[in-house]
From TrEMBL:
Keyword DNA-binding attached: no
Keyword Glycoprotein in record: no
Signal sequence bounds: 1-20
Domain of life: Eukaryota
UniProt protein name: Lipocalin/cytosolic fatty-acid binding domain-containing protein
Extent of Basic and acidic residues compositional bias: 169-178
Amino acid sequence: MKFVFVTLVFGLVCVAQETATEIDHSKVRGEWRTIYAAADNKEKIVEGGPLRCYYRQIECIDDCEYLSLTFYAKEDGRCEKFTEVLKRQEGDVYIIEFAGTNVFQIIHVSDNMLVTYIENDDGEKITKITEGVGRGDSFTQEELQKYQELNSERGIPNENIDNVIETGKAPEDSRYPK
């Protein structure tokens, strides 16, 4: 199992080195809301799935040496608020323990759109996940196209994209249907 995890981290470090220069850390900070989620194992991210998360806030600390994530997720059937502070690893990846071990990376950021890539190892299977978050409640056509390209590059079928705004809800956010 450790070999699989080390291989996973090494693979993400290699990918991160290719894309790290694209990330403008000054654009990461602030309020973000989950708009889309996609996974190669869609059961992980559907409503009630163990990795269905609703982002609220992302903060870069010390030029993103540390990343503070505030999000909602269901735990034991209840929606819970989480705030996790992650330390950057080599290659601009972060590790978070949540429903398994997750290697977390910001793969795209612009003024109104941020995309994360996560590889979740639950001890049985590795699941690839992207989450498209925004400062508004939707993506432009160009932003959606960029999100779809990022999914394709990582082997995540675009038919597995879930519009979180349309299919889910989270506390304290009127943009999600009740």
